[in-house]
Amino acid sequence: MIPHGYDKLKQFATYKKGFLDFLGLGPSISLGLVVFSEFFCAAFLIMGLFTRLTVIPLIISTSVAVFKAHDGKIFGDGEHGSLFIVGFVVILLCGPGKASIDGIAGK
After folding, report:
1. CA–CA separation, 96 and 43 (whole Å)
2. Rounded-to-integer distance, Cα 32 and Cα 19, Å
């Protein structure tokens, strides 16, 4: 997810012109939320910091991408997004592992 978010962060002005406004907040705010989710939340997830909290925005943004941008084609264009959603839901349900910062801090 980080490469997707970094690309959107780097080319923010280019992406905001035609970005999907799924919440009615405007393309700039919607794109900012997606960049936060795909770049920063994914970085926290890799570190294992605030794991369950960081997965929620990832699930939301990936679900919007699959069901709105790819018209719900979970076996077509949205196949990668669907696999990400399944992985994020598993992480949400199972929680962080013992090697994560959350797991170490919990001891």
Report:
1. 14
2. 10
Per-residue model confidence as pLDDT tens digits over 52-69 = 999 999 999 999 989 988
Please give the DSSP secondary-structure letter assigned to residue 76.
T
Tell me: the pLDDT tens digits for 4-61? 999 999 999 998 888 888 778 888 998 999 999 999 999 999 999 999 999 999 999 9
In 3D, which of 66, 87, 85 has the Cα closest to residue 77?
Answer: 66
Going from the C-alpha of 42 to that of each of 11, 77, 98, 106, the distances in angstroms are: 18, 22, 18, 21
32 phi, psi to nearest 5 deg:
-60, -40
| Domain spans, the chain | 2-105
Full-model pTM: 0.88
Angle at 62 between CA 57 and CA 66, to 5 degrees: 150
Inter-helix orientation angle 51-64/79-94, to 10°? 160
